[in-house]
Design brief:
heterotrimer; A alpha/beta (about 350); B mainly beta (about 170); C mainly beta (about 150); A: about 350 residues; alpha/beta; Peroxisomal Thiolase, Chain A, domain 1; 9-stranded mixed beta sheet; two-stranded antiparallel sheet; 12 helices; about 35% helix; globular; B: about 170 residues; mainly beta; OB fold (Dihydrolipoamide Acetyltransferase, E2P); 2 domains; 5-stranded antiparallel beta sheet; 3-stranded antiparallel beta sheet; 1 helix; 11 strands
Chain lengths: ~350, ~170, ~150
Amino acid sequence: MKKVAIIGYAQHPILKNAGALNEVELIMPVVHQLFDDLGIGQKDIDFTCSGSCDYLQGAAFAFVEGLSAIQTNPPIKESHVEMDAAWAMYESMLKIQMGDAQTALIYGFGKSSPGDLNAIISLQMDPYYISPLWPDRVSLAALQARVLLDQNIITKEQMLTTVVEARANSKNNRNALITDLINESDYFSHAMISSPLNNLDCPPISDGSSAMIIASEEKAYEFTDQPIWIEGIDHRIESSNLGARDLSTSATLQASINQLDLENIKFDIAELHTQFSHEVPFLKSLLNLQDVPTNLSGGPLIGNVMMCAGLDAIGKTYESLKDNQLKHGLAHATSGPCLQHNMLVHLETQK
Amino acid sequence: MSAEDTPKDYSESPINLEYFYTAGSATTRFLNQVKEGNIVGQACPKCKAVYVPPRGSCPRCGVATDIEVPLTDKGCIESFTVVHIPIPGNPIVPPYVCAMIRLDGANISFLHLIQEVDIEQIRIGMRIQAVWKPKEEWTHSLENIKWFAPIDEPDIDVATLRFQEL
Amino acid sequence: MSDSKDLLRAPFELAYNYKRSNGPVMSKFFEALGEQKILGTKNSAGKVFSPAAEFDPETHESLKEIVEVGPGGAVESFSWIETPQHHHLIKEPFAFALIKLDGADTCMLHMVANCNEADLSIGSRVTANWSEVQEQRITDIKFFALEK
């Protein structure tokens, strides 16, 4: 495996409604900030890859419009994933591994405010057996929450703690959308949206964008003296047959842990793409992170830009390692209902 | 087995999604001017290309088009097509002409209708001008222009419209 | 940036009438729904998937053996919605539930209605209630209700 490093990451302030900015106007500032920070331009980028969801914009091939935020003259090599931009990073990693690129620009963007995210998420489900019932994203997550609570894998108190800590950690995140603190009585007084999940267990509707640059060993040192190395990366997906899955565990995550040999690594920090409060104690337990500071950025519960939040978990891990001189960080990105598809990224300060 | 009893080999899965769009900054600035009967393009600060309608960025340079450039409502036909097929929900009766309109001073063209001329006479390079709806009907839409109609000026060689790198 | 009060806004509706090919396995499943029967498919080890799956996600074997399951089953998990949203099909409080139908080893996602949240728990016995009109869609099962 060639050594690949993250050399920069930028995030737009997360907005409740970015109505005054179209998608292109959201993307440009983060890409420009990255270029300015590193003193480089699009000419230094070999491969550009984005992550977004056309259904969020309500137009076929809407992602193409996003490219207008990038300098495309002279022509560039680019690609797109209809997924979280964490997977755009994965594709970029492959490009570098194959020797087709030395540097890659990754960006993600999402505006959930114009549409009905609950309805849109229904449409990612099986179109024969599930979508026609219009299950919303919270109800799908709540099915897993109930299984975990019923089997005592997590507790309601852990969900409360997750929400309280997410709010408290928002002070570490200059781009946080939700910053007001809550206490136990606030939490238990909130009405259920889809029991056992109440409003505070769920992420806010969010608009925003993020960008990242990764580079081969050779190029990384050319552009920065503080690269953070991608020591391991693995993603696996569970069946699209929701009713055939065991929601109390994740065989695919376990396989990724083994593949990346994470058992014996002492992580300093972790950032998890946990959109619902019950997912934090669940994943901490699966990933053996009980004693590891997790989601110090506040995580998706204080700002959850669709198609960016997974990349943001990687970006926040990168920032934490870089800014605090830590050694090992674990980032997680997810896609699909009930943590169906998971990516683990092991970041390391030392090469 | 009657036709009604024949098992369906397909599932109907209708979907409908409701959105509430916002125009964003560049489009809002443009449409506010269109409401007043003005066509104001936006120019790239780097390559100086003028975009109408503007979408907020220069896709050549990847920067915001923050220079406002007032344009006339005159231009030429860069390309066109004669539409013979009725489109459901479209009130215009075929055959009619859709053309890529290149306004004078702009570096991109946009789609609009050509009327008040025999279809056979329409050609690339033909000079045209906007025919506006009555002022009291103006809204935030390019539909304030009913269509474009030919004007008595010599044709333009569209090859001369090709973008010149600075 | 524009002042938000000057911001232009417009409603927009996106609608598609997709028709999807059912294929040999799901055609049988939807045909049977029209006769108020629920089918599953069985793998070589005897595990039954319902709604009828075309393949086993673990062994990847093609599933062709059809068996009838249900119409009763047990709730494996549920999410209770006190205030339905506009796109939900049931307008009174209801649950989305994973239901393991009798004779099946996997769950069907569907809705449970005509009860209160307190009446429902993991393990509750439910049975299919049928729609008035059979369209050979998953919604031919209107919802599941607690067994009497």
